[in-house]
Amino acid sequence: MSEQHISPAGEPGAGEMLREERERQRLHLEDAAEQLNLRPSLVADMERDNYEQIPIPTYRRGYLRAYARLLGIDDRMIVAAYDHVHGRSDLDERRVAPISSIKPPSRTGTIAFRVVTIAVVIILAVMTLLWWEGRESAPGYGDDTAMLEQDTAPPDSANDPDLPPTPEAQPAVDNTSASGSGNMIDGAPVDTALAAQIAKGDDDGIPEPGSLQVDTPEGRNGATGGLVDTASDEDTPSDPVASGRSVKMNFGGESWVDVRDANGTTVLRGLQQGGTTATIEGVPPFRLTVGNANQVTIDYRGERVDMSQHAGSSNVARFTLGE
């Protein structure tokens, strides 16, 4: 059975008011339904106050307002007429939403979270301390020697023809003869007859001190086996600085140096500490390799050597003094 309500006291209902206005405007039902985007049957039921096709009261009021606005009449009057017949009980209903209670976190969970946090912090602190102690106790920690030597170490003399071979690379001299008698000095034979005479205590024929000579390579003292200067004593100046036989080096910071004289003798080699001074003597010219060159000052023959002319981009200077 259709749901159709009649307005009390003969008052026109909302649908009847809409139908009368539509007919007065000579608007066809199909045209009104098309503009409202509704089915013509639904619009016809609304004009008869039959709302079976619209079960929800809120939608009914919405369609009635839209229809009234289409016809240009007051939509509040149309809705009031509908409420007068059908009532407003749907609008007066209050739906109470369930209240969701939020439980506070349990005390046990809070304590467990704090304990875990503290344990993680302690573990991180212990690991950091162990790492730091291990770093300090590691070999070479705090000593930049390895890095400095890597940056300033002189090139291998075997690969650089301009430098003499290092003492480690020089072949060892066998001081024994082929028969193993050991009567060799720097590879030269010794007068064994004279040595035997000295051993027997026979002083006859023993040369004066300093006159015992053996065949030695050029540049070595036959009596001592040591290096001698080929220049005569009269030609050698008494002042080593003026003669160029002395080099003074001042180290403002740590520096690895290698200094060799004309005979290939290493007169200074190794890591020199900052704040120290070294005065070396030898036979010029000197071949120098100086690491961390901008921290080193060199005085030669009373003049300061300009290190900036010799130091390269690696701050390592390789040059010769006394040429």
Automatic annotation (TrEMBL):
Designated name of the protein: Uncharacterized protein
UniProt-recorded Gene Ontology molecular function terms: DNA binding
Extent of Polar residues compositional bias: 173-182
Highest taxon of source: Bacteria
Gene3D superfamilies: lambda repressor-like DNA-binding domains (1.10.260.40)
Organism: Kushneria marisflavi
First and last residue of the signal peptide: none
Transmembrane segments: 111-132
The entry's keywords: Membrane, Transmembrane, Transmembrane helix
Pfam family for this entry, one: HTH_25
Segments of this protein annotated with the region Disordered: 1-23, 141-188, 200-247
